[in-house]
Please model this.
Amino acid sequence: MLFKNITILDENTEIQKDMYVVVEKDRIVYVGREKPQGETGREYDGKGKLLMPGFYNSHAHSPMTLMRGYGENLALQAWLNEKIFPFEAKLTGNAVYWGTMLSYAESLRFGIVSSTEMYYFMDDMAQAVIDSGVKANLSRAIVNFDDSDVRRLNSFKEMVHAFEEYHGVCDGRIKIDASIHGEYTSNHLAVSAVADYAKKNGMRAHVHISETKSEHEECKSRHGGKTPVEYFNELGFFDVPTTAAHCVWIEGKDFEILREKNVTVASNPASNLKLASGVCNIPKLLNNNINVAIGTDSTASNNSLNFIEEMKIFAIAPKAYFAAPEAISPAQTLRAATLCGALAQGRDDCGVIRQGAKADVIVLDISGAHMHPVHDLKNNIVYSASGSDVVMTMVDGRVLYEDGEYTTIDIEKTIFEAERATEKIMSEL
Model:
């Protein structure tokens, strides 16, 4: 495919107008100002359009789409214990599959090309990734409260099965990560066992850290003043590349540890605000040269996968909270949404418009009134654009969504099956 006369967000997060970009198979093979010679396949007229890297959702629980709008106006612990956990106890593989497919349909519509997942029913989630054509880092979160051999847990066995069965399949679209749900839902034996397995198998890791003040402080009271970051670090969990979700209440030496261990912080601004968990100190993370990416969390706590909306909240919430209008720039926001998320997933050849990179790209319609005038297009993308401006989403060179149509997802069936699965669970509660 040839994108012609199109504006692009280049690998340096700069705007370039009137460009030509060629995609062959799963790669970008040409980026330049001159029209390439020879057969390039379909020609896409880029007038009034922007070509940019797709979004990488760095913390997600996609099956929880079935709980959108359920359990509102509750703090995190009440939300979990009173609403989410009872609903999840009724889940089936079929429900998880359709909930995940619904989530990926919404993701594609809003330009998300890949998600870092934490959930269970791994076979069903993997099948949804395979069928939809998206990319995902899947992880089976380990929860454990006693001193039994963690390796005997069904959850641990499911993690091992997922890694052996799905890691690297579909030309690398699926990666399997190791995961501990969090400090407050596990113990040191579980953390050590998962860390050891991850190290032995060259896996990445995924964990919730310091999402709420109570979670953070209760960890310190249980472990002699150690913060969750210090606790996981001492147990060797950060000895592999790790995505730490939330990190709202980290403090002191936490920043140094995260930097030294090359941990990615996945900030989830909308979810953190909605659950009144707080505001992540993204400016301090960036100033400490810590990789920061953006996540949506689940639609049960968000309630949307509109990633452009997520970028705006990511950029403006810290400005208000820390009374610092210069806290985060649009360029930093765009990098967090694209390249930083790709790097967090171990996808080093993704997240940029560059010759040789994977063709995980999206097209935005920038012709609307709300996108004009243009003093700096990067500012308009972050602060003025809408999720509805996404008109094409491509993964590995394959168009999965374009102008309201899906190429891999039967959207009517997906909505019907997701509604039916939800109704069945609600009838059992």
